[in-house]
Structure to design on (149 residues):
């Protein structure tokens, strides 16, 4: 599985650590930046290219980190086909994939500890979409919103 990862200054340190963690688990990692700590950078500059790469199939899933995770999820969800969520608990990390076909996990670099982030990432990446009719029906409604708004 190829994983895209991105962060601004608020998530830079956690992104770097998660990239190493993912590689140690055998994932192919594509880094969308930031590539250095710059307190004046902006999360959309990194999260949007990551989101577009998910939609195009260049990467299978994405992980975006900003200070709180909120901005990253807001920006990512502006891209049709991206289903991003700020995740802070194990259940949501896997259930978001299983039921809602979540394809981008957002984390807060200033509020999520390293071990917790590794657990959340593992739950997210090990989960699979169930494809149940009720979930497909709901996602169809979401897709319709993307196309008509």
């Amino acid at each position: 599985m190829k994983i895209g990862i991105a962060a601004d200054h608020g998530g830079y340190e956690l992104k770097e650590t998660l990239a190493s963690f993912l590689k140690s688990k055998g994932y192919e990692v594509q880094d969308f930046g930031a590539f250095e700590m710059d307190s004046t950078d902006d999360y959309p500059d990194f999260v949007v290219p990551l989101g577009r790469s998910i939609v195009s199939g260049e990467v299978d899933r994405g992980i975006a980190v900003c200070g709180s995770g909120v901005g990253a999820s807001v920006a990512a969800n502006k891209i049709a086909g991206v289903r991003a969520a700020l995740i802070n608990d194990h259940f949501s990390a896997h259930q978001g994939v299983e039921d809602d076909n979540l394809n981008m996990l957002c984390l807060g670099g200033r509020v999520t500890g390293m071990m917790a982030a590794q657990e959340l990432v593992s739950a997210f990446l090990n989960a699979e979409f169930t494809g149940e009719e009720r979930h497909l029906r709901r996602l169809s409604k979401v897709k319709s919103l993307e196309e008509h708004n």
